[in-house]
Amino acid sequence: MNAEIVAVGTELLLGQIPNTNAQWISQKLATIGIPVYRHSVVGDNLERVKDTFQLAQSRSDLIVVTGGLGPTEDDLTRDAAKDVLNQDLMEDAVSMERIQMYYEKNNRTMTENNKKQALVLSGASVLQNDEGMAPGQIVEAAGKVWVFLPGVPSEMKMLMEQRVLPYFRNVFDLKSEIVSEMMRFIGIGESALEDELSDLIYEQKNPTLAPLASEGEVSLRLTATGESDQEAREKVASIKDAVLQRVGSYYYGSDEVAIESRVRDLLKEQGLTLGAAESLTGGRFIEKMISLPGASSVCQGSLVAYTPETKEQVIQVPNFIIKEFGTISYECAEVMALNAQHLLQADITVSFTGVAGPDPSEGHQPGNVFIGLQYCDEKPIVEHYYFDGSREKIRNRAVKKGYELLFHKLKKASS
């Protein structure tokens, strides 16, 4: 069985809201061994919705449709499905009663168009919606399975977890389970990672490996199928071990783990505290840490100083450093890290100074960044980088690089 997800709603095409439903549904279907081959999005136009449904019907075994089940004129999913599947629409008495009770309970007058939400296809298995008004529906027609769900995420998720997935497990002979893990690496590029793993990638069948680049780091998706969840997980674990033997020094976690949370854990394990001195990053580095639970046990704070005068007054950068070398320099980044350690009473401090743009500063072009690292009583180190892109991207890259330096230092210290 291969699946396709169709999202109905002009607001998705306009970019007013992201299509997070499709991502979530894909993950859930994968857990029961149903691969999703396509995602489609169509606006609120009856003919285009019908065309999209017909195309999906021609190429997919399972079509999951989200959105277009509301009470207004632009909610067209039911009408399109009626024509494509050649089924009548009928009022579901239970759904209608629930809608009426909602309005009575809240002392509100129900408008006539709300009755539309109780309409279902004549051949549908109706899925009662405990989170909203419009029910979900499962329809089997012409050898295809259709699932119609509301577009509101909370309603869609409830129906999928409590109604749709159990239905699939009971009705269909699902002979395989799919398990996927996203390994995350920092300090190595996508091409270098692929080169290190080229034979594993070339020989892949089950499990499969796919490198994916993102800002300042790279991920590796491992996916395996098996006749049971345990078998699939064992396959993923086996290939993961092979990957770690080659590039394990760059690995910091899997799936939803962020680099700053891994750094927090290493700081806790080693009983160390963190501080920062920030110029172009404007407090963004330490904000990432403070946003995590348990940050108070490892985070001392940050000194944010943007102008040369403030660097001199707040971080106590000597005036001769600023005059002789400038604020965008190896020397300034070094003394910022050193002084922040003393002022914040932190074990480790990271400093940031540079040009985010859009204009040059002190003769330096945008993207020219110095990052300092002061670790306990060791001699401070300073790294010099050139980042491309917009002002926002340069600042984000600087923050990510700061956490990269810190992660590798802490990992080395713990080994």
UniProtKB/TrEMBL annotation:
Protein origin, superkingdom: Bacteria
The organism of origin for this protein: Halobacillus mangrovi
Stated name of the protein: Putative competence-damage inducible protein
UniProt-listed InterPro entries: CinA, CinA-like_C, CinA_C, CinA_KH, Competence-induced_CinA, MoaB/Mog-like_dom_sf, MoaB/Mog_dom
CDD domains registered for this protein in UniProt: cinA
Family: Belongs to the CinA family.
Transmembrane segments annotated in the record for this chain: none
Residue ranges of domain MoaB/Mog in the record: 4-170
NCBIfam families attached to this UniProt entry: cinA_nterm, molyb_syn, PncC_domain, PRK00549.1
